[in-house]
Amino acid sequence: xxxxxxxxxxxxxxxxxxxxxxxxxxxxxNYVMSWYRQAPGKExxxxxxxxxxxxxxxxxxxxxxxxxxxxDNAKNAVYLQMNSLKPEDTAVYYCFTPYADSWGQGTQExxxx
Length: 113
Hints:
It is a single chain. By secondary structure, this protein is mainly beta. The protein is built from no helices and 11 strands. The chain has strands spanning about 1-5, 10, 15-25, 35-40, 45-50, 55-60, 65-70, 75-80, 90-95, 100-105, 105-110. Strands 2, 4, 5, 6, 9, 10 and 11 form a 7-stranded mixed β-sheet that branches. The mean pLDDT is about 95.
């Protein structure tokens, strides 16, 4: 199983950023996918989850209305569109699949003036 995140960057507060996660090694379309994040000194928290077919989504209260999770099962990819970024969104973002409890290596997002 391999999950490879990309798209992290340093941005200004209020700007947008899109993260991608490329998956391989399992039947991607059969599994729920999630994005988590971990800020310095804090526990890892779940940000968003999308069902296997993409029909259902859930978001943490802290990102609801600003972040959108999506997936493309033909490309074995899951995405996180992040709008109106705040300094408190600064973290390493990881994608996760419950298949073998697999994590990617993470991608750093920083929203700082």
